[in-house]
Amino acid sequence: MRIISMASTIRPSLLGCVSASPRFPVVSRNLSRSTLSFSHVTQSKLLTLRRSVSCLGVAESGNASTAATEEDLLKWVKDDNRRMLHVVYRVGDLDRTIKFYTECLGMKLLRKRDIPEEKYTNAFLGYGPEDSHFVIELTYNYGVDKYDIGAGFGHFGIAVDDVAKTVELIKAKGGKVTREPGAVKGGKTVIAFIEDPDGYKFELLERGPTPEPLCQVMLRVGDLDRSIKFYEKAFGMELLRTRDNPEYKYTIAMMGYGPEDKTAVLELTYNYGVTEYDKGNAYAQIAIGTDDVYKTAEAVKLFGGKITREPGPLPGISTKITACLDPDGWKSVFVDNVDFLKELE
């Protein structure tokens, strides 16, 4: 560290002891009179040295603190009690969508809430109670009957015992089938694709009995490695598996808080060479439970996410949340676990 001409004569053991203190001249007693005489070293040079060394100490201390904070947050995120609670998106006709999901997909209407002062209504549907299952939260905004789904959102996944029978039922109810039942490309799992009345795609996967039939949310991302690292560190998810399909030029990564056959997972899809997507205005977000929204926000910031709503209670119901964006701009909301259960009561 060369600050002034005499810096090379300062011994390493002494450098760590130097501080911006009025007693700084004591250093001169350990150096040659010809080198550190005050007649040759101006007061301004001394001040420059003191400031530089002081700043160096702060920087080193800050780096150590950051490393410790990162390590602590990583451990806390991994130990946090997290679960995917629900996925939120907008529809143009709430009654029509509820009918389709209950009659064609076998879901149950769990609850509805109307917020007239905000001019919207929510409906929660799924295959089991909200305190233990991943569910759908539909949002109807008064007077809005159509939305743009965009190219970034992919599909939802539903596990069923018999894909062919489910497809026949959907056809009989007037539903739209976009891919007939058959083995997935490059695999053996039988799948089919359908669309709901608003154009949202659902992948039907033939699977044995599972505690979580609503099992996937697929989103497209522009940098798969970046997304995997973000969801591992900031969200505490586990990378369950990846699959590359060079023939069709895409790669997927399955991430979640448990095995695919027992919990809902996030399916991230990277299409070769595509780095950005139009997200439209239909799909909204995923909600995830946490024991501490404040620490969650710290982790999201530290590991590359953007906080769009600072942690704290919602007006009126006191449920603590924080909202964030991942590196691709996909939104998630973290909800305090205790407050969420109180809200269900």
From TrEMBL:
<dbReference type="InterPro" id="IPR029068">
    <property type="entry name" value="Glyas_Bleomycin-R_OHBP_Dase"/>
</dbReference>
<dbReference type="GO" id="GO:0010319">
    <property type="term" value="C:stromule"/>
</dbReference>
<dbReference type="GO" id="GO:0046872">
    <property type="term" value="F:metal ion binding"/>
</dbReference>
<dbReference type="InterPro" id="IPR004360">
    <property type="entry name" value="Glyas_Fos-R_dOase_dom"/>
</dbReference>
<feature type="active site" description="Proton donor/acceptor">
    <location>
        <position position="203"/>
    </location>
</feature>
<keyword id="KW-0456">Lyase</keyword>
<feature type="binding site">
    <location>
        <position position="203"/>
    </location>
    <ligand>
        <name>Zn(2+)</name>
    </ligand>
</feature>
<dbReference type="GO" id="GO:0009409">
    <property type="term" value="P:response to cold"/>
</dbReference>
<feature type="domain" description="VOC">
    <location>
        <begin position="213"/>
        <end position="337"/>
    </location>
</feature>
<keyword id="KW-0479">Metal-binding</keyword>
<dbReference type="GO" id="GO:0019243">
    <property type="term" value="P:methylglyoxal catabolic process to D-lactate via S-lactoyl-glutathione"/>
</dbReference>
<feature type="domain" description="VOC">
    <location>
        <begin position="83"/>
        <end position="207"/>
    </location>
</feature>
<keyword id="KW-0862">Zinc</keyword>
<dbReference type="InterPro" id="IPR037523">
    <property type="entry name" value="VOC_core"/>
</dbReference>
<dbReference type="Pfam" id="PF00903">
    <property type="entry name" value="Glyoxalase"/>
</dbReference>
<feature type="binding site">
    <location>
        <position position="137"/>
    </location>
    <ligand>
        <name>Zn(2+)</name>
    </ligand>
</feature>
<comment type="function">
    <text>Catalyzes the conversion of hemimercaptal, formed from methylglyoxal and glutathione, to S-lactoylglutathione.</text>
</comment>
<dbReference type="InterPro" id="IPR018146">
    <property type="entry name" value="Glyoxalase_1_CS"/>
</dbReference>
<comment type="pathway">
    <text>Secondary metabolite metabolism; methylglyoxal degradation; (R)-lactate from methylglyoxal: step 1/2.</text>
</comment>
<comment type="similarity">
    <text>Belongs to the glyoxalase I family.</text>
</comment>
<dbReference type="GO" id="GO:0004462">
    <property type="term" value="F:lactoylglutathione lyase activity"/>
</dbReference>
<protein>
    <recommendedName>
        <fullName>lactoylglutathione lyase</fullName>
        <ecNumber>4.4.1.5</ecNumber>
    </recommendedName>
</protein>
<keyword id="KW-0677">Repeat</keyword>
<feature type="binding site">
    <location>
        <position position="155"/>
    </location>
    <ligand>
        <name>Zn(2+)</name>
    </ligand>
</feature>
<dbReference type="InterPro" id="IPR004361">
    <property type="entry name" value="Glyoxalase_1"/>
</dbReference>
